[in-house]
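Hey,

The postdoc asked me to send both predictions to you directly instead of through the lab channel. I've kept everything plain text so nothing gets mangled by the mail client. Protein one:
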Amino acid sequence: MMSKQVTINIQKEVNPHFRPVWTTKKPYNILKGGRNSFKSSVVALKLVYMMIPYLQQGEKANVVVIRKVANTIRDSVYLKMQWALEKFGLLDQFKMTVAPFKLEHKATGSTFYFYGQDDFAKLKSNDIGNLIAVWYEEAAEFENAEEFDQTNITFMRQKQPLADVVKIFWSYNPPRNPYHWINEWSDSMVGEDDYLVHSSSYKDDILGFITAQMLADIERIKNNDFDYYRYIYLGEPVGLGNNVYNMNLFKPLEELPDDDRIIALYYSMDTGHSVSATSCGCYGLTARGKVIRLNGYYYSPAGQVRKKAPSELSKDIYEFIKRTSTCEHWKGARIMKRTIDSAEAALRNQYFKDFGQHWTPVSKKKKIDMIDYVHDLLAQGRFYYFKKPYKTGLKYCDSNDIFIEEHKKYQFDEKTLKSDDPKVIKEEDHTCDDFQYLCVSNARDFRLKV
């Protein structure tokens, strides 16, 4: 039995816009919406609310929470479920473990289980039993609807005997591309008898959960890039267009501002040898949160009879980093990370052999998703580049011109725009790749979506 009376005023915790989610009897619930719509918080509270009657009766009831990638669980759904339990005054009745991730009710054994879909074999083989609900958070990260079907069948067979159904929840921010599979899938479920398809945005918050600071940040992005604002905060699939980036958001600098300073340095490299160019960008993070492309190394073997070997590129890059990292204009700024194309092994190994320093392989995602990290930084109005970098005197360095020109020309392949996996034209895109690797690899440092 539960040790104390649980009291919570749901009307003060869940915006009225989510009343259909709270009251529906439908087994399948799709919640899509923009950032700060609080859809994930609503699902978390709903799952706890669903478990409470079983706890009161001394019955065991289990819930499974799934993210596409297991290493995202700790900082997202695991903390979110703890928050929801605390709201109901129940957290102290649960035992928390992280290997594996579980929140287990001490008296009844009722448990919130957390899994990554990337460990599907383990997920499918687990006979949990007594299930009342499954939640797919950030559902757009999954490859297709078939991934849901495979696991749902497994879980439906493990229904809690007292439950009518195993309720399934999906929550996600709609991708920018209208033809992304999850946009088409959720649209196809509108009107289906067993499905609730619910849309929300930050504008539906009438309880005041969104702070003045958050609203100011939303307004800044709205003013910088209105389409990105519609996509991120209104949850609208605004489409892609041919050009990948809005070049007005690449802000030129003549020199460092007087009221700011570089506090950290980052290097990011896209590599090539006999055919492709090698691009290594030097980027600085300022105390005020600006990200500045300070300088770049760019070597192309095109048209050259003798191409540089990895041993030569290794020495070039080392000298580039040595000169740029010791520049007097940001003296004392620490190198935080060196990121490299994960497909590159020869230069990475050569560099470690020569200088005993590691480069971190980027954790690659779909191209459209990596581009989205860059969009996030640009829309916040925090990206700058030096029109004339401080001189190192090295060959193949001291210019950001190629960086800007490649980004101006960077386009989607029109033939793929109406697919769920649009492609870019892979020509003269080496600085574009190094910029994407930078943003993906350092998303937390740059305060980008994770």
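Protein two:
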Amino acid sequence: MRPPLICCLMALLSTVRPVYAHGAIQQEETSVPPASKSTAEPPKLLAEPDRPLDGRISAEKLTEYDPPPLPERVIIPLPPTFRIASDPSQVPISGEHFEKARAAIRRGLAFLREAQDENGGWMTDIMAAPTDVPDRPSPIAAAVTALALKAIMQAEPQTRNDPPVRRAIRFLKSAQRTDGGFEGAALTNYVTSVVVSALAAFEGNEFEDDVTDGTTWLQANQWDQGEGLSARQDWFGGAGYGDQGRPDLSNTQMMLDALYDAGLSPDEPAFQRALAFVSRAQNLRATNKAAWSGNDGGFIYTPANGGESMASESAGEGRRGEKLPAEQPRSLRSYGSMTYAGFKSMLYAGLAPDDIRVRAAFDWIRRHWTFDENPGLGGQGLYYYYHTISRALYVAQQDRITDKAGEEHNWREELIDALAARQREDGSWCNESDRWLEGHPVLATVYSTLSLEEGLKPTTR
């Protein structure tokens, strides 16, 4: 859990709003701080492994190039908050939007309560397969149950001892393993990450041991020197669905969400090693030497095994860019949900607002500002996108975003309007683009409710 000193520093710094410089992406190599200046002890964090490569990793699929720079200094991000505002004056939105969001949350939670299974879980009969092992469908009920519990606790903490909540907790505890993880078969990293975040939202010490055990498991299963990986290899620092699959940015940002919600400091090795992986997922040549890298500042799905992008797949170019014309240099497309995931992850890891990677990501956000779609994927993953954008902009302490045309946007109000317009009569949400299970009303409703709650978290303490 968070040391007292970090608590004090976070409370002090939470009143300071960072400014993310607008402007062209700098491409000069000299603008990047050298890794040797990092305060995070590069020899220890990026040291060569002392053991052979883990047998679960295919050496022939790895690519090698210099790791991105570590931060010159670690900036403590805004501390996690697990309660929505009780008064509209605590949030930079109109009273009308505050009430609209509260009403949408109440209706969403009412739908979720009706959808809860008798055993306490949600979506207990649904299976999903990782993107890298489609032949290994695994249960996701523990993850969805954890997300639903977090949504309930953030809006209605007074219900923590109500029978439906305690049934859900028992359901989660039944998935707990002796090694600290939460069972999800091929999806165990994903499941454990969201369970840790949910239990942290209960606050107090009721689940302190469970949260600690879960974060310990997550750090132990991060791909790094413990698996014989060098910091020069593209798996380094990432997390995948379970302990078998290659890492990706989606799972890595969920792992970092959990560590952040659990109160770990950004100078922990897990954050700093993850920063190497996250930076390698960014289309930014100044800090990413991958052959596929472009220079728009956005992010792809994974740099591992030579790189993959769902946006490239959606554009008909193949997930790995393998369908591009032979005469065209291979490149991978950035897209919305992964760019917000990367932006948020860099802040969790303590990168400063003026770091070239943070500024480049923020410029991409300004150029692709929208709540109408998941940029690069259209309707696919739209509610995941809403959840990621809301968490990212809250931790970035940005109340208003100025887009590429110079128009200013209150992101909270626009998010509330977008979700209120999509809410169905029964209080649920559902994605017509049924990919990644968003066609299931429970999952889409969980994402939507959590997104609205991020928009209502207080900005004053």
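Summary for protein two, as requested: The chain has one domain: 55-455.

Thanks,
C.
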